[in-house]
Amino acid sequence: MSSARLGAVVAAALAAAGVREVVVCPGSRNTPLAVALARSEAAGRLRVHTRTDERSGGFLALGLARAAGIAAVVVTSGTAVGNLMPAVMEARAAGVPLVVLTADRPATLVGSGANQTADQRGIFGVQVVADVQLTSTDASPKAWSAAMRRAIGAALGVRTRNPGPVQVNLAFTEPFVHDGPSEDVEIPPWLIAASRPADPVVLPAGPRTVVLAGDASSAVGRRARDAAETAGVPLLAEPSSNARGGPCAVPRYREVLDGPLGTQIERVVLFGHPTLSRPVTRLLGREDVELVVVADRAWWPDPGFAADLVVDGVLPEPGGDAGWLGEWLASGAARSTGPGEAPITGPELAAAVVAAAEGNLVFGSSNPIRDADLAPVRPDDGPVCWANRGLSGIDGVISTGAGIALGTGRPTTVLLGDLGFLHDLGSLHVPARDIVPDLRVVVADDDGGSIFRTLEIAEDAPDLLERVFLMPHGRDLAALAAGFGWPAHRISSREELWARLAEPVRGIEVLVVGIDRTR
User: Fold this and answer.
1) Using CA atoms, how far apart are residues 399 and 57, in angstroms rounded to an integer?
2) DSSP character for 177?
3) How many helices and strands, by DSSP H and E, does the chain display?
4) Exposed (0-12), middle (13-18) or buried (19+): which is 417, by Cβ within 10 Å?
5) What's the pLDDT tens digit per position in 135-154?
6) What is the mean pLDDT of the segment spanning 329-344?
7) Nearest-angstrom CA–CA distance, 334 and 316
8) Homologous superfamily (CATH) for 201-334
9) How far is CA 193 from the centre of its chain?
10) I need a surface site. Which of 66, 109, 353, 366 has the fewest CB within 10 A?
11) Distances in whole angstroms, Cα of residue 284 to Cα of each of 80, 218, 268
């Protein structure tokens, strides 16, 4: 059999399984698959995106997978594979279906010192839910197709309820393309039936209850909000929970948690993955609180090792204590603040972005998402919110946002810090023939990693904090962005910020806002 044939089978299997978004990073060894995917795109079976850098390509695919339900990324052999590790790790922790297609050299060359040859089999280890090895020297397209079906089924978690990334390592031998016309490949229909979730559990009224919503999809966020509103109890919703709205959402809830009301909580109903604040972490570890975890995967969050019940869904009984909810809402509203004097603070910037964003809103980790946690609750449903909170890394935020913009077809705003921006600066490069997403990147620029000022080292050894933690950059970030050819603006006033945010998002735009962290 030939490498071209293997590439055609893999491309056809992806399309047959409903994978519509594929990122291809250039290389030689992945030629058979890149060619087959380009032909599939020409036939209207899927869409190909290209990126020069594999790390950016991996996070672009991650964003596409989050938006579209599943996506794939293709890279050549050698270090190109290793550059995918950060995106793979986030996909594993967040349960995002991602098909990682790594081109490889023949097994006989591994360990020989041959160019661009490494042992790629199982290279991602426990960071993938499955790995498959295919080689073009096999003579069974039927076996290739079956292996792809298993790999994609594992990525989707249709039988395990444990979705995540999978690696398909493809050993291609030369020649990489057919001398004659390409052959059509027939793939059997998708026959893997999904496992069924259990029936929801009735949740009786009575204990002083709060619904806590961590990072979650819009569907899960909607269920969290419905549960709180049905029960008539406080809703404590993180910025990327997609539950942060409605009559039960408590503003500045993490500050209320540290007050008298927090000590009175008797039951927590948890949706999503909460990781954002220490008051929430302390709540989830309390032994005097009943913790009901609602999870749609085989994995569930339990950072305090205190879960009493894990269920697929809940049916709360109405009849919550109106006084209990009212106390929380009043306490949260009392902590809210309005705009201050210049310069702009982080919470002010986050509040402005949250209020103005339409379509999608992507949060970077570090201070910006914590600032957004203090923003007022929007009276309307607002944008769909996203964040890489599986591992809460600062890397890949721009490329993830681009993937979400392309996968949903909606304008997208990214709010991130200056170090996160510098970390993913190369993702502002979009190959000339590729689709440019409608992406507004808002950078909270406080000249370094100010979040590290909350560490114990800030008091114990401030000289070391300055030397190895804060990372002041001293760079004109707007000029760096403009170097890629995108409109970039340094914002110096609230009026200019509001005016820029009110404009529609068209193409890529970067807004850099100087932030005062002293107030």
Assistant:
1) 7
2) S
3) 19, 19
4) buried
5) 998 868 888 999 999 999 99
6) 81
7) 29
8) TPP-binding domain (3.40.50.1220)
9) 27
10) 109
11) 40, 23, 8
Q: What integer pLDDT is reported at residue 338 of this predicted model? A: 67
Alpha helices (H) along 214-259 = 218-231, 253-257
- Candidates 475, 426, 424; CA nearest to 448 is 475
Give CA–CA dist 374/324, Å, rounded: 21
Class of domain 346-514: alpha beta
Three-state secondary structure call for residue 468? helix
At 181 the pLDDT is 44
Q: Determine if the peptide bond prior to 303 is cis (ω within 30°).
A: no
Q: Give the 3-state secondary structure of residue 200.
A: coil
What are the structure tokens assigned to 53, written together? 């850098």
The CA distance from 81 to 122, in Å, is 11
Q: What is the C-alpha to C-alpha distance for residues 262 and 208, in angstroms, rounded to an integer? A: 10
Q: Retrieve residue 347's tokens.
A: 């919470």
More confident residue, 343 or 305: 305
How many Å apart are CA 519 and CA 505, to the nearest integer? 31
Structure tokens at 189: 């229909």
Separation of alpha carbons 262 and 264, rounded Å: 5
Between the alpha carbon of residue 192 and those of residues 14, 107, 188, the distances in Å are 14, 31, 11
Count of C-beta atoms within a 10 Å radius of residue 156: 24
DSSP H/E element including 372: helix 367-372
How many CB atoms lie under 10 A from the CB of residue 41? 17
| Phi/psi-derived region of residue 177, left when phi > 0, alpha when psi is between -120 and 50, beta in every other case | beta
Radius of gyration (C-alpha) of the chain in whole angstroms: 24
pLDDT single digits (tens) 352-379: 999 999 999 999 998 999 999 999 988 7
pTM above 0.85, yes or no: yes
Helix (H), strand (E) at residue 166: strand 165-171
Q: Are 169 and 136 in contact (CB under 8 A)?
A: no
pLDDT at site 450? 73
β pairing state of 209-213 and 21-24:
unpaired
CA 262 – CA 30 distance, rounded (Å): 55
The backbone torsions φ and ψ at residue 507, rounded to the nearest 5 degrees and listed phi first, read 70, -165
To the nearest whole number, what is the mean pLDDT of the chain? 91
CATH tag, 3-171: 3.40.50.970
pLDDT tens profile 387-403: 999 999 999 999 999 99
Instruction: Give 203-259 pLDDT, tens digit per residue.
Output: 999 899 999 999 999 999 999 999 999 999 999 999 999 999 999 999 999 999 999
pLDDT of 384 higher than 80: yes
Distance, first Cα to last Cα, the chain: 67
Backbone angles phi, psi at 500, to 5 degrees: -65, -45
Domain ranges of the chain: 3-171, 201-334, 346-514
- CA distances (Å), 233 to each of 202, 226, 248, 270, in order? 16, 11, 7, 13
The 3-state DSSP composition of the chain as helix, strand, coil percent (nearest 5) reads 35, 20, 45
